[in-house]
Amino acid sequence: xxxxxxxxxxxxxxxxxxxxxxxxxxxxxxxxxxxxxxxxxxxxxxxxxxxxxxxxxxxxxxxxxxxxxxxxxxxxxxxxxxxxxxxxxxxxxxxxxxxxxxxxxxxxxxxxxxxxxxxxxxxxxxxxxxxxxxxxxxxxxxxxxxxxxxxxxxxxxxxx
Length: 160
What we know:
There is one protein chain. With about 160 residues, the protein is mainly beta. The chain has 2 domains: about 80 residues, CATH 2.40.50; about 70 residues, CATH 2.40.50. Helices cover about 5% and strands about 50% of the residues. The chain is built from 1 helix and 11 strands; from the N terminus they run αβββββββββββ. The strands form 2 sheets. A 5-stranded mixed beta barrel has the order 2-3-4-6-5. The chain has a 5-stranded mixed barrel with strand order 7-8-9-11-10. The termini are far apart. The N terminus is likely disordered.
């Protein structure tokens, strides 16, 4: 299933000799699928990459390249990315803290006292001490009314 919208891709369309080529530039995570390593883009789409460099499943990366919708692959991917570049896109926020019930939302109180809304709480609940990684957005708009920002594209796990 192609999750990457054609509207997003058309913003990156290039015309060469009468042919239209779509490009992608996005951050995301490398994951394993059918014994393949594929790129799960933050804005949708699962891509088989021509090159993943030295990166491993679980790594957060930024990928740029030409999208090939006609590629043949045994991987579960919506398309392939040819002539791609790949670079580290590690999260800028990493912290441990406790999930707590807010008036409107489940919030993350980090060990430095910052109260944040998470994109993904996983299966954790209020009172759990967790480790969160992601991108900190201090000016996000939420309905929680208590938070001091958001952590987007986050991962969450037990804090050791």
